[in-house]
Write a structure and sequence with these properties.
By secondary structure, this protein is α/β, with parallel strands linked by helices. The chain folds into two domains: about 5-15 and about 90-215, HAD superfamily/HAD-like (Rossmann fold), CATH 3.40.50.1000; about 20-85, Orthogonal Bundle (DNA polymerase, domain 1). The protein is about 40% helix and about 10% strand. The protein has nine helices and six strands, in the order E-H-H-H-H-H-E-H-E-H-E-H-E-E-H. The protein has helices spanning about 20-30, 40, 50-60, 65-85, 95-105, 120-125, 150-160, 170-180, 210-215, and strands at about 5-10, 110-115, 135, 165-170, 185-190, 200. Strands 3-2-1-4-5-6 form a six-stranded parallel beta sheet, with helices on both faces. Helix 6 links the parallel strand 2 and strand 3. The protein binds 1,6-di-O-phosphono-beta-D-glucopyranose and magnesium ion (MG).
C-alpha cells in the first residue's frame, strides 16, 4: 500500500454543516405545510441540493414543476447561507486540523471531494482553504455520489493514481463512490451506517496517519 493522497468529504468530515442544511430544509418543508424530521435528514447526507429537494417533496407528497423547484432550492440555499455566514474555525470537527497538518509534514497530497456548491465559501469561513491543493465540489461535477466522479476528478487534479488515494467520507453513498473509484474508503462516523467502508473511525480525534495505515492492513 502506497498512500500518496487523502481526499476529504466536507460536510460530516471536516465540519458539521448537516445541522445547518437540516434547519434550512425543515424551514422549507414547514413553509410547504409539512414537517421534516432529523431522522429523515439522514437521507440527505452527501446528496446534491436538487436531489435533496426531490427527496423532501416526496416525503411531503408534493408535486411541483421545475421552475417552482428551482425557486425552492434558491430559498433553501439563502437560509442555509445565513448560517454559514457566522461559521468560524471553532466549527472544524475535532482532530481535523492536527491530521491535515500531519499530512503536510509527510508530503501527503490533499483534495476536497464534496457535493456542496458552497464548499469553497465554507472552507474560507473556517480558514481551511489553503490546506487543499485541489477542490472538487458541486460546481465541478455533473454526477452525484454514489457516482465516483467527484473523487476521480480529485485524484486526476492531484495527478495521483486512484489506488494511491484514501477517501474520508461520512455518507454511505460517498463510501460507494470512493470504492467505485478504486480508492481506499475510510468511513467517518457510525460503523453500522458505513459498513461498506474499508475501515471506519468515529472522528479524527486521536487519529494520526500511522493509525490509518494500520486500520487499512
Ligand atoms: P449545497 P458533502 C453535501 O456535502 C451535504 O452532505 C448534503 O447534505 C448537501 O445537500 C450537499 O452537500 C449539497 O450542498 O446545497 O451546499 O450545494 O457531504 O458532499 O460535503
Ligand atoms: Mg458528507
Amino acid at each position: 500500500m502506497n498512500i500518496q493522497a487523502c481526499i476529504f468529504d466536507l460536510d460530516g468530515v471536516i465540519v458539521d454543516t448537516a445541522k445547518y442544511h437540516y434547519k434550512a430544509w425543515r424551514r422549507l418543508a414547514n413553509s410547504l405545510d409539512f414537517d421534516f424530521t432529523e431522522a429523515q435528514n439522514e437521507q440527505l447526507k452527501g446528496v446534491s441540493r436538487m436531489e435533496s429537494l426531490n427527496i423532501i417533496l416526496k416525503i411531503g407528497n408534493k408535486i411541483l414543476d421545475e421552475a417552482q423547484k428551482t425557486a425552492l432550492t434558491k430559498q433553501k440555499n439563502d437560509w442555509y447561507l445565513e448560517q454559514v455566514a457566522d461559521m468560524k474555525s471553532d466549527e472544524i470537527l475535532p482532530g481535523v486540523v492536527d491530521f491535515l497538518n500531519e499530512l503536510q509534514t509527510k508530503n501527503i497530497r490533499t483534495a476536497l471531494g464534496s457535493a456542496s456548491k458552497n464548499a469553497v465559501l465554507t472552507l474560507e469561513k473556517v480558514n481551511l482553504l489553503n490546506y487543499f491543493e485541489v477542490i472538487i465540489d458541486g460546481t465541478k461535477t455533473t454526477r452525484s455520489k454514489p457516482d465516483p466522479q467527484v473523487f476521480q476528478l480529485g485524484a486526476q487534479g492531484l495527478g495521483i493514481a486512484p489506488e494511491n488515494c484514501i477517501v474520508f467520507e461520512d455518507a454511505a453513498k460517498g463510501i460507494v463512490a470512493a470504492r467505485s473509484a478504486g480508492m481506499y474508503a475510510i468511513g467517518v462516523g457510525n460503523a453500522d451506517e458505513l459498513a461498506h467502508a474499508h475501515a471506519v473511525i468515529p472522528s479524527f480525534e486521536q487519529i494520526n496517519f500511522e493509525k490509518i495505515k494500520v486500520l487499512m492492513c
